[in-house]
Write a structure and sequence with these properties.
This protein has 129 residues and is α+β, with helices and mostly antiparallel strands. The protein is built from 3 helices and 6 strands; from the N terminus they run αββββαββα.
Length: 129
């Protein structure tokens, strides 16, 4: 998982950067490049460029997704709304994503990571082919 953050950023360095999470005490995270400007969605005010981070203790993630993606993720049982969703500066699309248990689930998680990055970029850039 840690490598996935680095790989996503390395593939699109003009758009994304990886590094330690501001929200989650240094865990691996993916950020919109500050060169791109702030995300156009309801972002977390204390870490505006951070779109997703991992919890190394269990492999779960916190991310910001569009309303449509958040609904789909919850319906499919891949995660749930974070308890602080929409409170004290956290955006309404702030979710907890369950950790993958095998390689096929890791592919789903990578898709969720890409969706979070795409949403953070305002959907304007084609990230994945």
């Amino acid at each position: 998982m840690r490598q996935a953050f680095a790989d996503l950023a390395a593939n699109k360095p003009q758009l994304l950067v990886s590094g330690p999470s501001i929200i989650e005490g240094g865990s691996p995270a993916l950020f919109i490049s500050s060169k791109r400007g702030l995300p156009k969605h309801d972002y977390y005010k204390k870490a505006p460029y951070e779109v997703i981070h991992m919890h190394e203790t269990d492999g779960s993630l916190h991310c910001i997704l569009s309303a449509a993606d958040a609904k789909l993720l919850i319906q499919k049982g891949w995660g749930e709304r974070h308890g602080l969703n929409g409170k004290i500066g956290f955006p309404r699309g702030y979710l907890m994503v369950y950790a993958p248990r095998d390689e096929s689930e890791l592919d789903v998680i990578l898709s969720i990571m890409k969706a979070a990055a795409q949403y953070g970029l305002g959907g304007e850039d084609v990230l994945w082919s």
